[in-house]
Amino acid sequence: MQHTDAGAELDPVHPVPLPAPIRATGLTTAEVAERVARGQVNDVPVRSSRSFGEIVRANVFTRFNAIIGVLWLIMLVVAPIQDSLFGFVILANTGIGIVQEWRAKKTLDSLAVIGEARPTVRRDGAAVEVSTNGIVLGDLIEIGPGDKIVVDGVCAEADGLEIDESLLTGEADPVVKRPGDQVMSGSFVVAGGGAFAATKVGREAYAAQLAEEASRFTLVHSELRTGISTILKYVTWMMVPAAIGLVATQLVVKNNGLKDAVARTVGGIVPMVPEGLVLLTSVAFAIGVIRLGRQQCLVQELPAIEGLARIDTVCLDKTGTLTEGGMDVTELRSLDGVDETYVRKVLGSLGESDPRPNASLQAIIDAYPDSEDWRCVESLPFSSARKYSGATFSEGDGELSTWLLGAPDVLLGADDPALAETVRLNEQGLRVLLLARASRDLDDPKVAQGAGPTALVVLEQRLRPDAADTLRYFADQEVRAKVISGDNAVSVGAVAAKLGLTGTTVDARRLPAEPAEMAEALDSGTVFGRVTPQQKRDMVGALQSRGHTVAMTGDGVNDVLALKDADIGVSMGSGSEATRAVAQIVLLNNSFATLPSVVAEGRRVIGNITRVATLFLVKTVYSVLLAVLVVCFQVEYPFLPRHLTLLSTLTIGIPAFFLALAPNKERARPHFVRRVMRYSIPGGVVAGVATFVTYLVARHYYTGTGSLDAETSAATLTLFLISMWVLAIIARPYTWWRVALVAAMGVAFVFVLAVPALQSFFALKLVGVVMPWTAVGIAVVGSAVLELLWKWVERRFPD
């Protein structure tokens, strides 16, 4: 084992002071305890979500809660308790939001612990796994392919160690590390192995500093949340002048009693606030996280639920996604009459030479035991870029031999007869590796040139039993699947065909480098083989340049760059730590079949929030319009807060909660704001005008004491009926429970009108026969106009 002492062999460009001499045995138990006592621990908390305090603040301290809170306090002073009901509704809504998000946080945190990596450190000469926050300053941490560097440090041992720092520097090419070189947290190993000593832990580590600038709990890429923020901004602009005009009219122009004027002013302002819309969105997201958590799906960023619902292209890595990680050796074919027993010895020794074998090499290890009299002198780890690994052995008789194991189409010449046999096997969906004897030294960059083919190792990949159904689901949902793999194109195409995925198979080495031309080739092709890690990234970018929303699945280090650049990155739980770190969604059960559930959950959230947002904003529009009309006509505002609390609860609050959580398989569509406003504005205008017409007619019909209450009751009836028609349209297509929901809201309103105590409580009493039926007639006309108007909007402004 190689090791360095403090200050020795440091990188002259990036010298790093070490906390203590690096010993190959690592720290002792006493040294670890001493560092823990000094606080030299990697104590950065794993934050997959907001803290409880942040959740409470986010749900309580909002602009609209502040408006509603002030108005509520005023109403508690100047009006009966029934006019303050809206405040209790806000309290309940906020409480529900906090509880649901807290439940989602608990789900996220518990799943994050399951998916958390456990680095291997050397202590007292033994390799032990510890949690990430159990690392102390000076720990000697072992690393291999796929491992993420979790703290800053200095390389102490290196065996062909190559580290990808692209997530930190943007440079795609792996960096070869030697003892003394600096390693930085946030990078990951792509080839080889070694160990490094921790020089910066906790918040001093580079990755921790980056993490503090960008918390994992973000909603920045959510069209839904951005759209709702935009809508709320428009609402604020409408609210302010309307509310000012209403206050002036009720307090100055109309000579009402102060308390009644204040009550009717507040009654006009409160319904302008779509306070439940933000809450309902948070609840829908939170419940989505909880539902997916039950299926062992870790959503690392909430917008990922929404994002996956918007995808139209999913790029699948074959290994670990369409096939299971394990393989089996089905056949060994010696070439040029080489003794098969000798070949078995070579393969067994190759397997023993790699301390971290990939799936292919593990199958060879399982099939061929190590030859005890062979000794590995030098090894070359497998690299996705090279497509082969190698080792130099001292055989039992002392002779040295160098061997390569990798892709036949990389190691063989185009005219080699063994290549034709490889193609035939690939067409059956089998994976083939070539064992070749090299004539050059292993550290020669051209070691593969002139290597003599010795044997073909035939491997059978285990297809995931659920892969075919999942691919069918995506096809039914008009989501195009692209298989992108580093394996032989013919072999990958055969595997895809077995799973029912048809289309053109392309060797990525023949793909054009120009993004526009590559995008065209990607649109026409389905299966792509021999794809390099950089090409995977370029392919994702090329698809995005054509307007596609791209999801990428993967589990290996060669997938990291593409996962990072894709709109949605999906990693398997058993994948490398690097892939889990950059992915937005981690399938902890390693089941590709979970993806349809994620897509369905996203579609449920987006489709239903778009649906119920219309309900909330119709109320906002008609409230603003009513306020404007009241100011223009210089009349009393027709409603008290209790009336609109009742209407909001029956036509929006209760139905919206059920509709937001209902199943919805409708494909997510863009332009959320436009789609919501094109229905909300005409709906709100029709409801506001019809209600105000009823109110004006009632003002001419009723005279004397109590006339204002009778006028309010008639206007309330019209507004309720039109709001019910809006709800009936939003609830389409009908199912038994949707019909029952709408009917139940109608029955509840009739119950309020029929029970004297509730009549008195809500100040609702229909007087006479003519005016109530006139209110119904106006509502019927308004509903018919609304139906025709929405159909015209649908034709005039299609999705």
From TrEMBL:
Topology class, membrane: Multi-pass membrane protein
Membrane-traversing stretches: 60-79, 85-102, 234-253, 273-292, 612-637, 643-662, 683-702, 714-732, 739-758, 770-790
Superkingdom of origin organism: Bacteria
The keyword Transmembrane belongs to this UniProt entry's keyword annotation: yes
Major subcellular site: membrane
Organism of derivation: Streptomyces hyaluromycini
Name of the protein in its database record: Cation-translocating P-type ATPase
Domain P-type ATPase A: 120-213
